[in-house]
Write a structure and sequence with these properties.
The complex is a heterodimer of chains A (113) and B (118).
Chain A lengths: L3 E2 L5 E4 L4 E7 L7 E6 L6 E6 L3 E5 L2 E6 L4 E6 L8 E11 L2 E6 L3 E6 L1
Parallel strand pairs in A: 2-11
Antiparallel strand pairs in A: 1-3, 3-8, 4-5, 4-9, 6-7, 7-8, 9-10, 9-11
Chain B lengths: L4 E3 L2 E4 L5 E6 L6 E8 L3 E9 L2 E4 L8 E7 L2 E6 L8 E8 L12 E2 L3 E5 L1
Parallel strand pairs in B: 2-11
Antiparallel strand pairs in B: 1-3, 3-8, 4-5, 4-9, 5-6, 7-8, 9-10, 9-11
The chains are: A mainly beta (113), B mainly beta (118).
């Protein structure tokens, strides 16, 4: 089992719709969770972080965390073509006395006009 | 405009040659991560430094890869000898991590070094 799992997609949604991206993780002790966005040919950039169970909203983005189910999600409201990118879920894994950041393989999102 | 700087941006080399990639983290950041990205494997963690000390290099093939941080402004990743399977984009990322380890994942990535080994 991979430490962080995501559906590779592509997830195709029409402009203006809600895009829902999901991620599961294997380490029940993980405490910090992140969503990065990566445009084709570019480097990942942090868009959301979440540390507690529940929802965290930032503009059109909402991150949701359920530690009991070991599940993290990202909702993008009013999706725009400019949101088309690969979304990487990242989770801290405590090992050897420190936290390290492990990424999922990413979900490719395509927003079509 | 603070950013992580990586060199070279592109490198084409022949199998068996030595490759050195360099990274200048954002001033004041105390952690540096090296990742490798391929279509098949996604982002793989190669090495992790905090306050210049190596904390984890378990993701690196030890016989050919080495990572160092000779000072706070420079991290290096070296491959010797290089092999075609090393072809990938190598990313350096830095962050400012507090003692408790929280916000370990709030990283800033460089633009990457695209390596092609023929």
């Amino acid at each position: 089992q991979k430490e962080v799992e995501q559906n590779s997609g592509p997830l195709s949604v029409p402009e203006g719709a809600i895009a829902s991206l999901n991620c599961t993780y294997s380490d029940r002790g993980s405490q910090s969770f992140f969503w990065y966005r990566q445009y084709s040919g570019k480097s990942p950039e942090l868009i959301m972080s979440i540390y507690s169970n529940g929802d965290k909203e930032d503009g059109r983005f909402t991150a949701q965390l359920n530690k009991a189910s070991q599940y993290v999600s990202l909702l993008i409201r009013d999706s725009q073509p400019s949101d088309s990118a690969t979304y990487l879920c990242a989770v801290t894994l405590f090992s050897g006395g420190y936290n390290k950041l492990i990424f999922g393989a990413g979900t490719r999102l395509a927003v079509h006009p | 405009d603070a950013r992580v700087t990586q060199t070279p941006r592109h490198k084409v080399t022949e199998m068996g040659q030595e490759v050195t990639m360099r990274c200048q983290p954002i001033l004041g950041h105390n952690t540096v991560f090296w990742y490798r990205q391929t279509m098949m494997q996604g982002l793989e963690l190669l090495a992790y430094f905090r306050n210049r000390a190596p904390l984890d290099d378990s993701g690196m093939p030890k016989d050919r890869f080495s990572a160092e941080m000779p000072d706070a402004t420079l991290a290096t990743l070296k491959i010797q000898p290089s092999e075609p399977r090393d072809s990938a984009v190598y990313f350096c990322a830095s962050g400012a991590i507090k003692t408790g380890g929280e916000k370990t994942g709030e990283l800033f990535f460089g633009e990457g070094s695209r390596l092609t080994v023929l």
